[in-house]
Amino acid sequence: MAGRKVWRRVDGVLLLDKPTGMTSNSALQAARRFFSAAKGGHTGTLDPLASGLLPLCFGEATKFSVDLLAADKTYDADLLFGVQTDTGDADGMVVRRCPVDFGPAELAAALEPLRGGIRQIPPMYSALKKDGKPLYDLARQGIEVERVARAVTIHELLLLDVAGDRCRLRVTCSKGTYIRTLAEDLASSLGCCAHLTALRRTAVGALNVADAVTLDQLAALSEEARGQWLRAPDTLLQSLPAIYLADDAARRFAHGNPVSVAAAPGQCRVYGEQRLLGLGEVDAAGSLQPRRVVGGVAADA
């Protein structure tokens, strides 16, 4: 009989290249087992259909996962025009077929109104809740409820390829953007319908899938080799300026007390005593307020 799994404290960030057909939570649990990490979380879900970058946080790094939820994200999306599904992607049932009578030039022109600030109505097959119930649960019961349009920003929308009734788009967008909805809105503007056949997330903020590892790759490595894929917890904070505190100030900050600094107002990553202390915010008076404090974490800066 095999012994019980021994979980241990692991502090770090893993850039995972999630495969298709797996939920984000299943991918997280598989990665946790590889590292025997006692505590873990992800920085925003990817649909089972989608593959690509899923940053995972272990231990003290989970304190910063919320900061990456608000980051811009980049996707490569494959669309099939002429077929609409109830979920907006290839996992759903076909509910409508329509002719495709536009060409590449019309398609390229239809992208322009979707760039910049737009409003989207969230899909029924989403994790948003109505009266405490996820919309996807209602959708599976055949219930459709009114949803309020939300403001999102499409920073970049590129047409990468066109082949008959299919195309590939690259989208860099703000938090809360639904690529399935974007695909349906694009098709609607062309008098057509569409759904996603594939979706791959290639970037989250400054993090890129080119630096990620797959579960299969981790499975083939020794425990020591796997550890080389773990990044320091402050990986998620690299877009913020750094403040380094002397010993006394570092101890005060580490115990949750504000300290005076000569720095511009705003959020920052804070170091002292040769380690990461946490996330802070400098106010207009030059007072550095602790926002999230970590314990005993080595710095990567």
Automatic annotation (TrEMBL):
Responsible for synthesis of pseudouridine from uracil-55 in the psi GC loop of transfer RNAs. Belongs to the pseudouridine synthase TruB family. Type 1 subfamily. This is tRNA pseudouridine synthase B. Its EC number is 5.4.99.25. The active site is at D47 (nucleophile). Residues 180-231 form the tRNA pseudouridylate synthase B C-terminal domain. InterPro entries: PsdUridine_synth_cat_dom_sf (IPR020103), PsdUridine_synth_N (IPR002501), PUA-like_sf (IPR015947), PUA_sf (IPR036974), tRNA_psdUridine_synth_TruB (IPR014780), tRNA_sdUridine_synth_fam1_C (IPR015240), TruB_C (IPR032819). The keyword Hydrolase does not apply. One of its GO terms (biological process) is mRNA pseudouridine synthesis. It is an enzyme of class 5 (isomerase). Signal peptide: none annotated. It comes from Accumulibacter regalis. One of its GO terms (molecular function) is tRNA pseudouridine(55) synthase activity. The lineage of its organism: Bacteria, Pseudomonadati, Pseudomonadota, Betaproteobacteria, Candidatus Accumulibacter. It catalyses: uridine(55) in tRNA = pseudouridine(55) in tRNA. Keywords: Isomerase, tRNA processing. Residues 241-294 form the tRNA pseudouridine synthase II TruB subfamily 1 C-terminal domain. Residues 32-179 form the Pseudouridine synthase II N-terminal domain.
